[in-house]
Model the fold of this input.
Amino acid sequence: MTKNAFEQYKARILEAAKMLDLRPEEAAALETPDRVLEKTLSVKIGEKTLEYPAYRVQFSNARGPYKGGIRFHPEADLDEVKSLAAMMAIKCAVVNIPMGGGKGGITFDPKKHTKEEIHALSRAWVAAFHDFLGPDTDVPAPDVYTNAEIMGVMLDEYEKRAGKNAPATFTGKPLSLGGIAGRDTATAMGAVFILEAFVKQKKWEPKNLRVAIHGFGNAGATMAILLHERGYRIVGVADSKGSLIDGDGLDPDALEKLKQEGKSLVDAPGKTRGKPEDVLTMDADILVPAALDGVITKDVVENFKAKLMVELANGPTTDEADSLLEKKNVPVIPDVLANAGGVTVSYFEWMQNRKGENIAREKVNEMLREHMEKAWEEVSRFASEHATTYRIAAFSLAASRILEAKRDRGLTF
Ligand code: GLU
Done:
């Protein structure tokens, strides 16, 4: 995340507050987390003792239980986790699901640890915070460098401590433990639904649209494959090692296979290779930042060629870059809308666990499409009625929904 990520969040709330004519106390209520939990995990494996800081920030449960992922990353600190927790509250309100916002993390590099160590730390995270978790309390999910496997281990630890089955405590689980079909593709699928609605509104033709994707993890690779299937031309992709560019179009399925074999995109035969950041300013119509935060800087925007940006990653754009994009009239579909498909399908998973049901993949995707199209319609209508960006529109809509829930609880500011 960018430096002072929480400051960036507050700046966006300030813009929404101006738009909605909020009183300072109302804006302050959107900037104050309900609870910040912080512990040092200590795990002994053989001779080795691992000690790492861990967090859970419960930002707001005004609209429903706290909801949001857990990330394992060497740079995950409290400021980052807090801002991501706040963004989850906004995200859930944008797509209008009955969930609040939370986020968790452990500051460590899972790439430098064995599976046994990672599992032990996952259990230690649950041991530290289990009193504050539960289907009606706080429902974590995967995030950067965590996945279904980790959710399975965490659920097991939680259930052992609770002495009962409680699958709705975690989402993004393996199918065998109550996970939902389509959760793995949900983030990219949600973005595709929003992009399709945008393209339709603009009367653009998918076959004439060239897409560059920065980041080829689960979300980026799935987005490339889904867009390729729908006739878009994928002209550039990048992973942490480098980029691959081809104006005639790349085959994302073949590239995904390469990644599965543990290779990098730069190992693909016969294409133009460069630095990862080359795709950010390449000649393309749509740019999808799908990896790190803070990659879209002012310098990048000065050399920008795309006519639309879709933020699949959380927080990819700095404030300065955001203002410049607005000046240059480049529309941005913001993270809190573009990548909300993940948490939306998490909500379906939570719902299916509570009902003891299994929702079929086709039904999941149909429900996701409905939710995303409705959110797009509301955000784009707000943006055009108030002559503002999609980002400010999304923040304003979400802020008004969270405040409405607080007022309906009889809370005064
Ligand atoms: N970590 C994902 C996000 O940033 C998903 C959260 C969830 O499913 O609860 O939206």
Observations:
- The longest helix spans residues 361-385.
- The mean pLDDT is 96.
